[in-house]
């Protein structure tokens, strides 16, 4: 099955700086890569996703890039704010349905 | 508004007992999933269903079972609870291609 690795496991950034989280996947057939944000005690929620026919996607302060050849994708958060503090999960899927998740990155934005 | 509801939110049980966690969605989604969340492991898939009477094993299915008798519900049963099954359990559903995965609020299960 698909194996997704996520780095780093924790990330501390100064408010206003950028944060980058990287994930690698093992199955070249995977074609859907969503990112989820989970605030403390809450459910994971989708923040952005990308498909294998696109190299980059942006939504306001967040962006995701995909390198199919290297089988890795990254989440970029610019101008970080305190409300960006959360656990972020990357995931990969071949068929949109069954997602394999990375282990998560705890992001702390320092005021 | 459509939603996905899990119950109970918290459960404490003893080793060896049978436990059932409920999941009910009003999205009318065919696809439903159970994940467990443990520190350092992220979300790991336990079981999933693509429709009524369809069930499939995920990567950590040992000791768990599910049944799908209607579109709305996918209960998760721990046949004989073990301390290793102490975890936070999330149910999720999706409508398929181009439909994001919606998670429930989670059930925190403690097995003593």
Topology at a glance:
The complex is a heterodimer of chains A (111) and B (112).
Chain A: E1 4-7, E2 10-14, E3 19-25, E4 32-38, E5 45-51, E6 56-59, E7 62-67, E8 72-77, E9 86-92, E10 100-101, E11 105-110
Parallel strand pairs in A: 2-11
Antiparallel strand pairs in A: 1-3, 3-8, 4-5, 4-9, 6-7, 7-8, 9-10, 9-11
Chain B: E1 4-7, E2 10-13, E3 19-25, E4 31-38, E5 42-51, E6 54-57, E7 64-66, E8 76-78, E9 87-94, E10 102-103, E11 107-111
Parallel strand pairs in B: 2-11
Antiparallel strand pairs in B: 1-3, 3-8, 4-5, 4-9, 5-6, 7-8, 9-10, 9-11
Give a written overview of the molecule:
- The complex is a heterodimer of chains A (about 110) and B (about 110).
- In chain A, strands 2, 4, 5, 9, 10 and 11 form a six-stranded mixed β-sheet that branches.
- Chain A has about 110 residues and is mainly beta.
- Chain A is about 0% helix and about 55% strand.
- Chain A is globular.
- Chain B is an all-beta fold and about 110 residues long.
- Chain B has no helices and eleven strands.
- In chain B, the strands form two sheets. In chain B, strands 2, 4, 5, 6, 9, 10 and 11 form a seven-stranded mixed β-sheet that branches. Chain B has a four-stranded antiparallel β-sheet with strand order 1-3-8-7, with no helix packed on it.
- Chain B is globular.
- The model of chain B has no long low-confidence stretch (mean pLDDT about 95).
- Classes of the chains: A mainly beta (about 110), B mainly beta (about 110).
- At the A-B interface, strand 5 and strand 10 of A face strand 4 and strand 5 of B.
What is the CA-atom radius of gyration of chain A, in angstroms?
13 Å
| Total of helices of chain B | 0
Radius of gyration of chain B: 13 Å
Helix content bin of chain A: under 10%
Helix share of residues of chain B?
under 10%
Strand content of chain B: over 45%
Overall form of chain B: globular
The shape of chain A is globular
Task: Report the count of strand segments of chain A.
Answer: 11
Q: What's the rounded overall pLDDT mean of chain B?
A: 95
Give helix and strand order of chain B, one letter per element, not per position. Answer: EEEEEEEEEEE
